[in-house]
Amino acid sequence: MVIDPEVASKPVPAVADTHAKRLTWWLGLTPAWRSAFQTAVLQHSAHPMAEELEYLWQIPAIRFTGPRAPYPNMPFELTDCSGLQGMSNLEIVVLTHHQLGSVTELATLLKLRSLFVNNNSIRSLTGIESLKKLEQLYAQFNQIDSLAPVRELTSLREIYINFNPLKTLDGITAKHARNLKGFFCLPNDDLPDREVMRVEQRLGIRCRAA
After folding, report:
1. Does 95 reside within a domain?
2. Is the pLDDT score of 54 beyond 90?
3. Of 1, 18, 39, 121, which residue is least crowded by CB atoms under 10 Å?
4. Among 126, 144, 133, residue whose Cα is nearest residue 109
5. Which keywords are on file for this protein (predicted)?
6. Is the entire prediction scored with pTM above 0.70?
7. What mean pLDDT is predicted for residues 150-179?
8. Does any domain span residue 53?
């Protein structure tokens, strides 16, 4: 792993602001998450050095793409987001083509601007309500049945929520209209045409197909 000096100058969150805290965090990770960091970020299988552990908490973007992805960077699938909990310097998170069931562990990533969690098994977006800076949400090809958690996320510019069992677009409001220029909610087999018309005609938000 090549350490960027500019990134390495960033402060570390209080939960990991000493080597002892970071070491405790590392040893407390599940084996899958330790392996994920080693494979996709550190790019070696040895125990991370002190500066590498610190750097993990400083980086603004992180990418874990499972083996089913077009360009995977790890050979196995994750089942949760626990390894990223508390990593509040993150602005971009890519967790695609895994077996994630939820995103609740991401609730503390308050700087997050882009979240890619498409091609998983996510049933609920609960946990993202606090991510007020979120501008991009890619959550297509999941099992999500509600957009309620995005109700207050009015900085969103792009939402990809196609290929989910949505029956309503409740959660998308008139407050989204100003910024939301890319709302890709089609196709969704269970979504009634009248719901699409409601959002387009009453809210002025075009429902696009992807």
Report:
1. yes
2. yes
3. 18
4. 133
5. Leucine-rich repeat, Repeat
6. yes
7. 98
8. no
Give domain status of residue 143, yes or no.
yes
Cβ neighbours, 10 Å, residue 122: 23
Closest C-alpha among 30, 29, 96, 31 to residue 62: 96
> Quick one: how far is CA 201 from the chain centroid?
30
The CATH number that applies at residue 80 is 3.80.10.10
Q: Which two tokens stand for residue 78?
A: 């994750």
Flag whether 174 is in a domain.
Answer: yes
176 token code pair: 């989204």
Tokens encoding 134: 């979120």
Residue 30 backbone dihedrals phi, psi, to 5 degrees: -65, 155
> Which structural domain, as residue segments, surrounds residue 187?
59-209
Among the residue ranges 5-9, 30-34, 150-154, 202-206, the one predicted with the least confidence is 5-9
Using alpha carbons, list the distances in angstroms from residue 135 to 89, 117, 131: 16, 14, 9
The pLDDT value given to residue 2: 85
Residue 40: name the closest of 82, 5, 78 by CA: 78
CB 97 within 8 A of CB 77: yes
Mean predicted lDDT score pLDDT of the chain: 97
CA dihedral sign, ordered 122, 125, 130, 133: positive
Separation in Å, CA 56 to CA 41, 93, 112, 138: 8, 13, 16, 23
